[in-house]
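Re: that chain you flagged

S.,

Sorry for the slow reply, it's been a week of failed gels. I finally had a moment to sit down with the sequence you sent. For the record, here it is as I used it:
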Amino acid sequence: MSTSYEAAGVDIAAGERAVELMKARVARSRRPEVVDDASGFAGLFDVSALLRYRRPLLATSTDGVGTKVDLARRLGIYDTVGHDLVGMVIDDLAVCGAEPLFMTDYIACGKVVPERIADIVGGIADACALAGCALVGGETAEHPGLLGPDEFDMAGAGTGVVEADELLGADRVRAGDAVLAMASSGIHSNGYSLVRHILATSDLTLESRPAELSRSLGEELLTPTRIYAQDCLALTRAGGVRAFAHITGGGLAANLARSLPGSADAVLRRSSWTVPPVFEILRSYGRVPEAEMDKTFNLGVGMAAIVAPDAADAALRLLQERGVPAWHLGEIIPGDGTAHLS
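Prediction finished late last night. Pasting the structure tokens below so you have them in one place:
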């Protein structure tokens, strides 16, 4: 009795169909430095574009979307998690001042449904276009028997470039600098294991419509991650930026502390912003202590910038012009490298 790859659960034709469906959206992320590889085995990028740099440093980052993909699966909405992936990868590059150049993705699934894969990759490509980087390649792997037919996971890697003497970071930070907050679009892509635990152990469901929200909780939880890369680059070009902090797993204080020198602290004022309703809903229904909320969620701050005090007002105006809600979050004082929420 003969058997086949398809009988084992792998549908090559479905994979080829998915590639055809995603091509047009992937093309929209193209940069002029991208070079076509007829074989399709590799993504090519013309690095002669880097000759304009005096001493270019390549920056790289890799990440995933975590268990937020489970909510996408349960709701049958697949075009937003690609934005989450790009935000998690490319905005890490922005922290050091790097311009994003290109990205690759990897999707593992139990069964290739061409339209579903095309939605996922199309979302990645659309977000790459927003971030100013090219999606130069990727891989979709079918894992029957390891993942259920509707299950999937995703990861990505990105590369950027920054001039060596313009590298941002803790060594530039000084007492007296201002800390600016850039609003998150929601929960972004961190803390979803706690979110799912709250959903499993409380009266909340994805279909719930709390009075504080204008849509279902599920729709709110799938809000795509705001992508800050081009906004950070615009701030850097304007001058006065010392460092950035991408507020991801670990929360606001812990991530900001990563951008502080051992001789300075950040004092952050809770009174400077109103935490978005979705966080209070989760805290209340899940009976989550404040300290646990602080170290799990971004609480409405997706990116922080540390800037020279005389550059703060201009930076806030620039962010406003770019449509990014932003405010004066706190200050840098002498200390030992700790960020304090007070």
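What I noticed first: The longest helix spans residues 114-131.

Talk soon,
D.
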